[in-house]
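A.,

Following up on our hallway conversation. Structure tokens first:
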């Protein structure tokens, strides 16, 4: 029996993002804190036990990492963007806290949609019923054109998307993590799993290109891990599988190439504590030296608290003359 031919994606019915029902819009996003708002009293009011003590200690370690010029690497799932906390993470980028941002494929999809159209996300259960889920043409066309536009350039997927978005100067660029990182020259790497992202459903998706450039981003992440030892910090926000697996392999290669990388802190934030983030980010990498943390809670609450604590602590440790 001869095998069936592959599906012809040139026949898929696509729709405009402007007519697509959306769940997320920019007016609902978090607002950055002003400098007059202090987190010190709040943090001091927490009991000195269990997770409250851990939370304060992690904030101290992040601030200490910045003071030592050590990496603070953020691994982040796409749901974190959808709950509206991007402005707070952008503020951490601007303050020089975050030194590397690693996303999955869905992360750049939501960031691009918010940057250009101020909306993102859709009702999967409703739209999958008629085959319209993920068939938004503008998003797919913007991202899938990268293959043609970057021919001959040896750049990672994250850098290519950041550059393309920055050059387009979208209306809502101040809400874009990609734009914010590009402005501060913070590396962004994108770690895709072919078939998991909606742009894979479109006829102009080039699997070879996305695989090759995401593999280059894997190698770029390895270099960012080179100086993680003796004071760096890794934060995993809301990635249950892909980024914990990528981080474990990247750290393995970094140790293989550059020797002993220990003595760093690793923390996982998620609504549910999953196996891979806790084993592959928190426990195994710090087993030979370092500190691991796990915090359970909704991102729209926990991440603002984390950002508030870091920025407030940073401002307390910095004199007015030292502020940038």
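Then the amino acids I'd put at each of the 324 positions:
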């Amino acid at each position: 029996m001869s095998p069936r031919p592959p599906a012809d994606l040139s026949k898929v019915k696509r729709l405009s993002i402007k007519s697509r029902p959306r769940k997320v819009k920019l007016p609902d996003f978090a607002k950055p804190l002003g400098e007059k708002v202090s987190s010190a009293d709040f943090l001091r009011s927490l009991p000195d036990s269990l997770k409250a003590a851990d939370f304060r200690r992690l904030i101290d370690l992040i601030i200490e990492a910045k003071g030592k010029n050590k990496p603070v690497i953020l691994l982040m799932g796409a749901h974190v963007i959808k709950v509206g906390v991007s402005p707070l993470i952008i503020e951490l980028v601007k303050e020089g806290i975050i030194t590397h941002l690693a996303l999955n494929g869905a992360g750049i999809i939501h960031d691009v949609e918010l940057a250009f159209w101020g909306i993102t996300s859709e009702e999967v259960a409703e739209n999958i019923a008629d085959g319209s889920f993920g068939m938004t043409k503008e998003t797919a066309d913007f991202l899938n054109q990268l293959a043609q536009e970057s021919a001959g350039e040896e750049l990672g997927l994250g850098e290519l998307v950041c550059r393309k978005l920055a050059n387009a100067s979208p209306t809502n660029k101040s809400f874009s993590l990609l734009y914010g990182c590009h402005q501060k020259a913070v590396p962004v790497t994108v770690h895709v799993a072919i078939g998991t992202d909606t742009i894979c459903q479109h006829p102009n998706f080039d699997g070879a290109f996305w695989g090759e450039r995401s593999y280059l981003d894997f190698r770029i992440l390895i270099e960012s891990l080179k100086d993680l030892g003796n004071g760096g910090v890794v934060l995993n926000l809301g990635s249950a599988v892909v980024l914990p697996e990528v981080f474990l392999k990247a750290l393995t290669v970094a140790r293989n190439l550059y020797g002993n990388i220990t003595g760093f802190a690793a923390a996982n934030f998620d609504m549910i504590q999953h196996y891979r983030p806790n084993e592959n980010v928190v426990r195994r990498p710090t087993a030979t030296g370092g500190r691991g943390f796990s915090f359970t809670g909704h991102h729209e609450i926990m991440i603002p608290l984390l950002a508030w604590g870091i920025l407030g602590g940073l401002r307390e440790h910095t004199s007015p003359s030292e502020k940038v």
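The beta strands are 24-25, 72-76, 100-104, 119-120, 188-191, 233-237, 264-270, 290-296. Curious whether your intuition agrees with the design.

B.
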